[in-house]
Each structure stands twice: as structure tokens, then as C-alpha cells.
Amino acid sequence: MSENSAPTGTRHGVWTPEGEVPPAAPQRPSEDTIISLIKTVFDPEIPVDIYELGLIYAVEIADDGKVKVEMTLTTPSCPSAQELPAQVEEAVRMVPGVSDVEVEVVWDPPWDQSRMSEDARLALNMF
Q1: Can you list the domains of the chain with their CATH numbers?
Q2: DSSP secondary structure of 62-107
Q3: Is the sign of the CA dihedral 45, 76, 112, 104 positive or negative?
Q4: How far is CA 45 from CA 33, 65, 80, in A?
Q5: pTM > 0.85
Q6: How high is the mean pLDDT in each 10-residue block of the chain (127 residues)?
Q7: Which residues contact residue 75 at a Cβ distance below 8 angstroms, ignoring those fewer than 6 apart?
Q8: Burial bucket for residue 41 (CB in 10 Å: 0-12, 13-18, 19+)
Q9: What is the dihedral of CA 54, 107, 76, 59, to 10 degrees?
Q10: Before 109, cis peptide (omega within 30)?
Q11: Count of CB atoms situated within 10 Å of the CB of 103
């Protein structure tokens, strides 16, 4: 290796007349994009997405792109108890900048109809 060559695997910024620009840091995932993809997940028994149903309690986004979603189900005996968290994980993984996803099903506080959005209540005639 000559004096002027860099070790293999070293990343360099781009040179401009103003000087070297450092490589761009990975972009932090957008909460709006994460929520919009979570809204593509529907409980197969209810024609409303799980976000509008109020099943998503929290979305935490770390600077390194790791996302944690806390969600619940309408009942502990929900027939979709295995598939809904997996669908949420799959949807969130599609968001640019997401490096890892953890979906945790929580039961406290228990879900009730008051957690539903107004749009969900109207769609289900529950107003």
C-alpha cells in the first residue's frame, strides 16, 4: 500500500471546493411513516386498521433506527394474537431507516372502545 492510499474499508467523505464533507449519517425513521404503515394492518374480524382501533399504545424511535412498538389486542383470547404483532413488525421494517423492530403486546391498560378514533367509531357504527 502506498503512502497516499487509504486502508481497505475506510469510508471517506466527498471532497468539495469548501473541503471534505463527512458521509451522511443514517436518517432517523419518520414517526409519520411508521404510523402510516401500521395503519395498513387490519384485524381480520374488524374492517378498521389497528391504529384507529386504538391498539397501538406507543411507538418509540431510537436515534440508531431501532423501533419499539407497544400494542394490545381487543381481548387476550383474540384469534389474531399471533399474526397481528408479526404484521406490525413486518410493516415497520419497511420504513426507510429502521434498523430493528420490537413489538411488545401489553395488557395494561386494558383496551376498551374509548381508545378508538372517531373515524373507527363511525365505521363500526359505535358512536
Answers
A1: 26-123 (3.30.300.130)
A2: -TTSEEEEEE--SSTT-TTTTHHHHHHHHHHHTSTT--EEEEEE--
A3: negative
A4: 25, 32, 9
A5: no
A6: 46 62 71 97 91 97 96 90 95 96 96 93 87
A7: 111
A8: buried
A9: 40
A10: yes
A11: 20
User: Cβ atoms within 10 A of the Cβ of 35, count?
Assistant: 14
Estimate the share of the chain in helix, then strand, then coil, as percent rounded to the nearest 5.
20, 20, 55
pLDDT at residue number 7:
46
Q: Where do we find the cell 381480520? A: 44
Q: Which residues pair with 76 in a beta bridge?
A: none
> Cell 381487543 appears where?
74
Contact assessment for residue 95 and residue 37, using Cβ atoms and an 8 Å cutoff? yes
Which residues, at least 6 apart from 18, have a Cβ–Cβ distance to it below 8 Å? none
